[in-house]
Amino acid sequence: MKENHSLTTEFILVGFSDNPVLKILLFLLFSAIYLVTMVGNLGLVVLIYMERRLHTPMYIFLGNLALMDSCCSCAITPKMLENFICVDRRISLYECMIQFYFLCFAETADCFLLAVMAYDRYVAICNPLQYHTMMSKKLSIQMSIGTFIASNLHSIIQTSCLLRLNFCKSNHIDHFFCDILPLYRLSCTDPFINELMIYIFSMPIQVFTITTILVSYFCILLTIFKMKSKDGRGKAFSTCASHFLSVSIFYICLLTYIGPSKDGNKDIPVAVFYTIIIPLLNPFIYSLRNKEVLNTVKKVMKIYSKLKNFLLSHCNKRRRLRHILLIIAINCVNNFGLSREMRMDMTNHSSTMEFILVGFSDYPDLKTLLFLVFSVIYLVTMVGNLGLVVLIYMERRLHTPMYIFLSNLALMDSCCSCAITPKMLENFFSVDRRISFYECMAQSYFLCFAETADCFLLSAMAYDRYVAICNPLQYHTMMSKKLSIQMSIGTFIASNLHSMILVGCLLRLTFCKSARIDHFFCDVLPLYKLSCTDIFINELMIYIFSMPIQVFTITTVLVSYFCILFTIFKMKSRDGRRKAFSTCASHFLSVSIFYICIIMDSRPLEEGNKDLSVAVFYTIIIPLINPFIYSLRNKEVVTAIKRVINT
What we know:
Elements: E1 10-13, H1 20-50, H2 57-85, E2 90-92, H3 93-126, H4 131-134, H5 137-163, E3 172-173, H6 180-185, H7 192-226, H8 230-258, H9 268-287, H10 291-314, H11 317-348, E4 354-357, H12 367-394, H13 401-429, E5 434-436, H14 437-470, H15 475-478, H16 481-507, E6 516-517, H17 524-530, H18 536-570, H19 574-602, H20 612-632, H21 635-646
Helix pairs in contact: 1-2, 1-9, 2-3, 2-5, 2-9, 3-5, 3-7, 3-8, 5-7, 7-8, 8-9, 12-13, 12-20, 13-14, 13-16, 13-20, 14-16, 14-18, 14-19, 16-18, 18-19, 19-20
C-alpha cells in the first residue's frame, strides 16, 4: 500500500483570508497580541519568582499556568505571523509534529493546573484552618512536577500516534496550525488507533479535571452560602472569582472547539480565542483584581524606574539603542539566510522515509540458530526483569532505597530489550528488513531513554552503597525512601529530556546517501553516516549533553567506590570486610560490565562500522545478566522469591 502513495513531507497551512489588506491588519493585530501575551505571562512568572511573599501554592500554580500559556502562544503565533507575510505557507512534517507536541503539552498542563488551582481554592475556603497542612509549598511543587510529567507523557503518546500515519490525500491543512483532526482528514492510514488513544487518554484527563473543578466549586458555593457574614461572603467570592472566570472561559472555548461543525472544519475564530486570546487574558484576570500582585508590580516598577534613571545618567541612550537595533538586524539576516539554506537543502534532496537494517545478514546460515538464541534471551530477560520489579513491589521488606533503584534499573533494562530485540527477531526471517523513519526515531528515543536512565541509576546505586558502608549510622537519614523515589523521578525526567533533545536533533537531518543502516537497530552514529545534512549541531548536542552525563555518572561511581574501598581496607575485622564486599560486589560487577561495554561501543573503528558483538552485549546481554547478578547472590531477594513461590 505504501508504494501506491506519494507520502507528504510538507504541509501548507491555509489559515486566514488571502485578502492583502486584511492580512496586514491581522498581522499587526496578532503581533501586538503576541507581544502583550509574552510580556504579561513571562512578566508574571518573573514577578512570582522575585517576590517571596508570592511563594505560596496558589501563586506557584499561577506561575506554571503563565509559563504554559506562553508556551502555547510560542508554539502557534510565530508561524502564523510568518504565514501572513510569506508567499508559501509551508510547514515541514517535523515542524508540524513539534508544533502539535508543544500545543498538546501546554493545553494538557493547563487542564491539570486549573483543576489543581480549583482544589487549592476549595481547601482555602472550606478548610481554612488546615490550609497550610493540606496545601504546603512542597506539595504544590510536587503537584506541578506531576502535572508536567503527565502532560509530557500524554503529548508524547498523541504525537507518536500521529507519526504512524501516512499523509497522501492532500497537503493543505484547513487551519492556521497543525491540529489533530485536520491531520486525520489528510491521512491515508486508518486513524482508528489514534482515535482509540484519544478515548483512552485524552477523554479521562478531561473528565477528571472538569469533575475536580465542578466538585470543588460546588463545595465552595455551599460553604459560601452557609456564611452569615456579608463581608465573609464578599472575601470568599473575591478569593476565587478570578480563577472561576478563567476556568469558565477556558472550558467554554475548549468544548466549543472540540464540538463538531457542520462543514467538518474547525471554527477558526473559536480556535483563535482558545489558543491565542486566553493566554493573553489570563495574566490580566489574575493580576488586575489581585492586591498582592498589584503591590508587587508597583514595587518592581519603582526599582525599574530607579535603574532606568541610573542607566540614562551614565550611558548614551541613542548609542545603546542603535547597538541593539544593529544586533537584531544582523540576527534577522542570519536567520533568514539559514532558513533559505535549509529550504534549499530540503528541496535538492529526496529524503529517505524507510531504512533497511543490515544487521546479521552476513550470516545467512546462522539465522535460525541466532533467532532461537535471541528469542530465549528475550524471553528470559523480560521474565527476569519484570519478575524482579513485581517481586520488589510485592515484598514490603524490599521497599528500601537500594531495591527501589534496582526495580527501576530492571524496568529500564526491559524497556531497552523491548526497543531492540522484537524488530531484530522479525528481521531474521523477513525478506525486506525495512524499518520506517518514524519507527527508527521511536527506537532511538526509547533506547536513549533507557540507557541514560541506566547511567543515572547505577550512579545513584553507587552513592547508596557509599552511604551504607561509609556512613552506616546516618544511612536512614541520608538515604530515605522518599529521597530515593525523588531521585528516581529526577532520573526519568533527565533521561526523557536527554533522549528528546538527541532525537529532536535527528529529526532535523535529511537522509539521502543510502537507506542501508549497517546495524541491527537504529543507532545514532550509523544514521549520521547516511545524512546529507551537516551533523555539526547533532555532534555539538552530544558534547553538550551526553558527555557531561557520562562524566558525571562515571565520576560519581568512581569516587563512591574509591571511598568504599578506602573504608573497607581500614576495617580490622575480616567478617566486616566480607560483609562490606558482599554488599557492593553485585553492583560493582554490573557497573564494570556496563561501562566497559559503553566505552567499547562508543570507540571509533577503522571500518567506520559498529562492532556488532559489542553492541549485542551492550544492548541485549546486559539486560539479561542484571537480574541474575542482583538476585542469585542476594539473600533477601532469594528469600523473597522462596516466600512468593511458597504462597
